[in-house]
Automatic annotation (TrEMBL):
Main localization (coarse): membrane
Keyword Repeat attributed: no
Domain of life according to the entry: Bacteria
Transmembrane segments: 78-95, 107-128, 135-156, 168-189, 226-243, 255-273, 285-308
Topology class, membrane: Multi-pass membrane protein
Name of the protein in question: UPF0324 membrane protein
Organism classification: Bacteria, Pseudomonadati, Thermodesulfobacteriota, Desulfuromonadia, Geobacterales
GO CC annotations, alphabetized: plasma membrane
Location(s), subcellular: Cell membrane
Membership in a protein family: Belongs to the UPF0324 family.
Amino acid sequence: MQRQIAKMVMLAGLAVSALPGTTTTLALVMGTAVGLVLGNPWPQRSSLVSRNLLQISVVGLGFGMSMKEVVQTGQSSLVFSVVGISFTLLAGYLLGRVLKVGPNTSALISAGTAICGGSAIAALAPALKAKDEETAVALATVFTLNSVALLLFPVIGHLLQLSQATFGTWAGLAIHDTSSVVGAAAAFGSQALATGTTVKLTRAIWITPVVLAVAALNGADRKLKVPLFIIGFVLAAALRSLVPQYGALWTGVAAIARQCLVVTLFLVGAGLSREVLEKVGLRPLVQGIVLWGVVSAATLTALLRLGLA
């Protein structure tokens, strides 16, 4: 009986999320409520759909930006990305040692925080030769903090009266997963969304060199691979710039992509189950929280001191 109710509520939540006017925050809250109270009736299927829909949405968001905007934002955030990733990986390693978290779990949490959340963890786990339970703990830790970030960052941004550009850059550099970056940025404003998406994708590119370096150190065989949705995002922006006379069409595609993102975040929230929370041990969770807090505070401080607010 409960499963049937969960199915009906899940379908209703999907329908509401697809309606114009439904915000990313509302979609996440609805999804989380379904996942924690009733349980997601289709966990594997919704996880697959949310991952694919997110990538499609990111490509669609590219139609809302010109190539000039993408290049300028990517260039301006490049130094922050390199410094931030290096600092996060080092700080995560030291925190893991202090808290006596397993080396693989610690490295996965650090990489997820530094680069691209679950995508970085999934890519790095084979290179580290990590066990399934180590990967599961890291994913659960990062996934939990992602949900918190989507709700918390816009509130902090408004309290501090951050500009659209500063908030977008901060979200793109300090939030783990692409879904939560674009969700938090979309809740803050359209310019923040454009900036946050570009900064995040610039950061995500670093999955490849980090995984290759770790694989070389551990003797694991990993082939060079760049996420296709990043290429799609750049191509979409290029197409908008090359054929500007269809501006109304490109704007419409970007609007559809933003609504698809709302649906994605409902599915992401529905994936946060009691079983996921039970996988997160105290020490890995403390490492994840402290590392994320330090990175977020340091990133925002650097942005404000450089006069980007």
